[in-house]
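Subject: Sanity check before I submit

Could someone independently write out the structure tokens for this chain? I want to compare against mine line by line before I put it in a report. The sequence has 508 residues.
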Amino acid sequence: MSVILDGSSLTIEKLKAIARDREKVEVPDAVWEKVKSCRKMLQKKIDGKEIMYGVNTGIGEFSEVVLSQEQVEQYQRFLVYSHAAGIGKPLPEEVSRGAIASRINVHCHGHSGQRPEVTKTFIEMLNRGVTPVMYDKGSVGACGDLSPMAQMALVLIGEGEAFYEGERLPGKVALQRAGIQPITFEARDGLAAINGSNVLTALAALVLYDAERWLKLSEVAAATTLECLKANMKPYDPRLHQERGFSGAIISANNILKLTRGSEILAQKGKKVQDAYSMRSTPQVTGAARDAVKYARSQVEIELNGVGDNPLFIWEDDTVLTGANFQGTPVSLPTEMVGTAISMISVLSERRLNRLLNPALSVGLPPFLTEGAGMHSGLMLSQYTSCMLCAESRILSHPAANQSIPAAADQEDFVSMGMNTSLKTRQIHENGLGVLAIELIAGAQALDLRAPHKPGNGVAAAHTVTRKHVEHLNDDRPLFDDHNKMVEALRSGEMLNAVEEAVGGLQA
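---
Independent answer below. Compare away.
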């Protein structure tokens, strides 16, 4: 079923369906009426030689340069050419598709002034699988993601490059193979295609989709380790968290209790009065991350359904408004919180891993979870990998959102650097998958050593998935394959799906 883009109902889940699952899109008839009305107003002003930013003037420092009627249409093509100035490697196709969908949704408001042909060609590109090659470096996240968006706009006119059916092709060839006719830019069309923070927003939306699932996986990993270390579960009593009042902590504690329900291990006597912070403060820490991610979702979905463009053509009032609705800070600042949150919980995971491996802290488990200590090193080096990932994520958690560098002869003297934020948050999430994968591998090893006592139902389901991909470690073997297989089990959703099926779902 197609996803309807109407300017007001695009969620992160719908964006993911378009971007990652390659769902087709549709736009209601009422949208086209608004787009046509806006263009009619704009054309009237063009014919009347009214001066309008980015239509018959230059942009940035050149906004005071007025173009002749003969220059107006040609300027839109040169604008896109000059702004396609990125560097690096192509963004994943899902990010480019998400950016196109986000840009279509901006156009659906009918305040961007573009001709309908621009938006319709974007729709055809999505629905027929033509994905522009857009480099990952070059956007400063104000005046929009101009550099990658310009690469996207090049394909509209049969230039640039695009992926089509697994091949990287010249844009013109990709369009031809897909049966799409390139357009010729007219007044306003080029700027309307590129002047928004749609790439950093699409990337942030996809990271948020994954981060919400990662948080659940972090609770699966935590529950597994709590079982292995015979934790005192009083810190997970719902009343404790209800008294403080943070919704994220309440959800996290409830999820972990659900995962450990039915545990024979935790039913044993001889618990410590108080466990270490890494064991008993998981709800407070993970809960804070949940609350941060929830806020970030609200901001990203506002942006996905807002008019991130400049200028805006309010045809209902015959008004042209110039401003800074391309500014990426409303998305980049909350996305910084998400990266910091994932980094923080990754450190919490590594500290729990340390307690599993350290014989002074592991409540009777063998050193590094190997029964042949000395001859064998067990999972000693897995912790090294986890530490490296945590260290890199801490470095990446240094904020980009306050790293503005003035550009365009100081006309654009404050920028969001939001693309940097989205890119690094994506890498932090990738690192976080590795950290949780290693904790889960260690947890499975420790559960084997705790046999015949059985863990809770959710933890048992996680153990089953782990053992499907990673064998119990008897004699030492190279561990890189185990690590990467486990990461893929987390990334694909296999682990979370199995656990949620066993316990009846975890609260988001």
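---
OP: Matches mine. For the report I'm noting this point. The mean pLDDT is 95.
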